[in-house]
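hey all, quick one before standup. I had two proteins in the batch that finished overnight and I want to keep them in one place so we stop losing track of which output belongs to which input. First protein below, input sequence then structure tokens straight from the run.
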Amino acid sequence: MSTNTVDKPRKVTTATVAKMKAAGEKIAMITAYDYTMATLVDRSGIDLILVGDSAANVMAGYETTLPMTLEKMIYHTQCVTRGAQRAMVICDMPFGSYQGDPLLALHSAVKVMKESGAAALKLEGGSDVADVIAKIVGAGIPVMGHLGLTPQSVNKFGGYGIRAKEEAEANKLMEDARLLQQVGCFALVLEKVPAVLAARVAKELTIPVIGIGAGPDCDGQVLVLQDMLGLNDGFRPKFLRRYAELAETVVGALDCYAKDVKAGAFPTMDESY
């Protein structure tokens, strides 16, 4: 029998992140939308890739995430899953694909799982979608919850401001977090909530809590890849740390290429067949 085997990276799973939470190991999550970026992410120490409905903003130029469709989310997730061999891939369920009707939500969830290759789904909302999440989890599909600022409800909130600053909303968020854990979420995203509140949630829940603009005491953090790489010049919220300034690098490279083409300096004979 042949002993020649190819060592494959061990896939991150729901069990992996549960163990990380129990061990006090922080979880690194990034939002990405395409094959090329996913292959690069997979070479790094990132644990989770979220294929966010923020693709509507980052990839398509919309002002909100609302125009994103189930078919487009499946497409972007297919691209990412082909590039991610180790990191766990989670797909955002887009607006209109799960709200209100548990059976519609289950149909949408099954379609995404069958066609996209995702390992899990993410849904926004608390008690209003608890029965939906229970239905999906009951079918064997892992679900990550999302509380605080939920971008699909931007029109309800009237903007993208900090959530749960007042006691009543903070108490409701705590109740919703407990409920989402109870109905089977394997993890929870908290977006733009006070750091003290996020710390309380992370301490009380046994499932991992991933923060974005929610302070340092969450069990992990998530950022959008293009934002943290400095590819999105116009987006500079307080919570964003830019680990590179690639917009300047990309524009500089393109400018050099354009000048070389116009001057006849590219291609040379060495670059020709």
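OK second protein, same deal, sequence then tokens:
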Amino acid sequence: MPGYLVEDERKVTTKRLQEMKDAGKKIAMLTSYDYTTACIVDGAGVDVILIGDSASNVMVGNATTLPMTVDQMIYHARSVVRGVKRALVVCDMPFGSYQVCAEDGVRNAIRIMKESGCDAVKLEGGVEILDTVRKILDAGIPVCGHLGLTPQSINKFGTFAVRAREEAEAEKLVSDACALAEAGCFAIVLEKIPAELTRRVAEHVKVPIIGIGAGPADGQVLVIDDMLGKNKGFSPKFLRRYADLFSIITDAVGQYVSDVKEGSFPNSDESY
């Protein structure tokens, strides 16, 4: 069964993402962390599924993404891959898996690809990790860049506020984006930066730009638990909620509890 607004049901590849950008077709990207959700997201027509290290927040309850390990990312990625037929599947490389040296980065990227079956990896950072990016690409692994607000560096920033409002940081971001694109990254995620800066980046690079809190771009990404309204405590300006699953699930569970306690579940039709 084709998904919503899906014109081409073939497997999405990095090459097809570039074709979409060149044709002016927008790219829809969402996170997923488990098999069941991935099946739904893929079937609904999402082009790219990201196994984000945001699993640290929404699946585990950590305050930051830093505690996630390579083993945990592989577990989530393997679960997602099993549920996907069409979307390109990208896995975040977690904090500590590529920052020490390029060799660590290549080794961990290979592990993620081999053990999960995903299609690509995503790294946070610019020229500081360029050597690692190049070596991962040399190993035959597609890389998606990530600039702007990079959550793995939250302790350095000290805030989740919008990045690159000042011209010096904005110029560095544009330079970093150019370096990542020239190195061979197939796409770049820009997180929580001014919309005008996203436009500037798009003028300098030819690869797809995926925004999150960064204004219009070639595509957009959101954390699925946020856009489905599964929590009440996270309401940034860039987030559009497409459902209120917090209320729906709470009501459903509450009704189940009542039925069990009243003895109305299971009834005779629900018993063998």
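Flagging for whoever picks this up: The first helix runs from residue 14 to 22. The beta strands are 27-31, 48-51, 88-92, 120-122, 143-148, 187-191, 209-212, 219-222.
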